[in-house]
Amino acid sequence: MSIICITIIFPLLYIVAVSFSKESSIAEIGYKLIPKEWSLDAYKQVFASSGLIGNAYLVSFFVTIVGTIMSLYLTTTIAYVASRKDFKYHKIIGMFLIFPLLFNGGMVSSYIVNTQLLNLDNTIWALILPYGVNVWYAFMMKGFMSNLPMELIDAAHIDGAGEYQTFFKIVLPISKSGLATIGLFYAFAFWNDWWLSMMYITKNELMPLQQLLQRLLSNIEFYLSMMPPGMKDSMGGIPVEGMRMAMTVIVVGPMLLVFPFFQKYFVKGVTVGSVKG
Amino acid sequence: MKQKIRKNSTRKNLSLFSLALPAIISILLFAYLPMFGLFIAFKDINYSKGIFGSDWNGLKNFEFFFKSQDAWRVTRNTLLYNIAFIILGLGMAVVVAMILYDLSSRFVKIFQTVLFMPYFLSWIIIGFVAYILLNPSMGVFNQILGFFGKEGINWYMDTRPWPIIIFLFYLWKNLGYNAIIFYTGLMGIDESLYESARIDGATRLQQKIYITLPLLKNLLIIMAVLAVGKIMFSDFGLFYYIPKNTGTLYAVTDVIDTYVYRSLRVVGDIGMSAAASFYQSVIGFGLVVGTNFLLKKFSPDDALF
Q: Is the pTM for the entire model greater than 0.90?
């Protein structure tokens, strides 16, 4: 067990160590767990060229916040409606949710639909809308909401509340733990997503963090071009390896710090998922 | 009176429907519309004529795809990796879950956190992890080889170790997540079952084989069936970012998804990529229906629909 945990943690420590190492010593002796010569050059460089990085942060934040709110709204509404057994079409909605789990149009026709019919390419909405409803999460939520006591909803109706009022004032507040779990799953999905940007975004201004990182991994020239002119000479060589790892630390760091606090919600989510199959 | 209830329920149905409407539209656009979009596999797409205006060209796209060497290669890779992931991956997850179950609760918390973490890292980040380990001149693996007096391997050029590398990175990301699913399954097992087994003199191993495994069977079947349904699809990032999309490694790392992506976005051959994508979706659907049919016949309780 400990061995598994060590193999998980060690490579991550290496990334941190390399980001603090002096470039010349990396080239000389390779990646080391404890840097031979410490240096902050990589971070200085990253922040100096922060135009694109700051922008990518903004894009990622915007997408994560707007996307999570939108997806939560869409997912909970349809899950709630599908869970109301007295709703005439709840079975049809249930089937409507199942079918995409079994069959999907695939990458090419999604691409054609999104670019040719919906014209989403190179807009910020391309990073948000396609993930509107994850039918799998809608299912988890439906399972969760089926367990809510029907008497509560009936009582609200008798008190004269309409369907909307009942949903927002009664159902949502008592579904908080389900909302937290699914909201976190969505937030991580949006924050971590590189797929949509890879497919639909070519403009630099709309590039989220993950895509920026990916460009750094694949192509050195790309981040030389990010550097303000004059920068290259003043530093005496660019800390290429260090910068790559420093960027990774900057992107992952906040997430890993937050993660342990939210972990119990994730575990809960897995449990709900496993119960519903 | 009757009239009033009727009216009330029509209004109820209408307002519930309108509550769900935005979600319905979203699913229609992004899940259902692409299903109908599959017809483009039979077209010679020409953007200037539009999707609907482009000429039909029958099975030409499929002919191109299946006559190329690639069809067999990507199908084989996709299937073999997925079979390994299902059998070995799920098997190991069950073992890890059992080990977790036997640990004291204080340790479980720590292990859970660490095990769960990689699942929430994107493949791009894990690509960096792979790069730290595999970099031919500075990487950790070659340093270790050097320490034992062996010559370093040029990892991104040599196809031989890659099936194992891919599998290990799959585990690195997913083992903990799957293990925790099984672990929560284990938590649901009634403690008294073990107690009575101990009284009857069952060893720890016997308890595992005769109590734990049968009780995990349902969960295992569900997980396996879901995975079989997706057997034509792969986790794109694993096969694209871990080998850094290296051409020399395609023989062992190219799967249908990466192939379709390249034909679509790099080569720009819409026809062929649409054909490959169609083939993937339709065979995938056939497999879901087929597996469900078999389950219905032999183990009706586990059938999905």
A: no
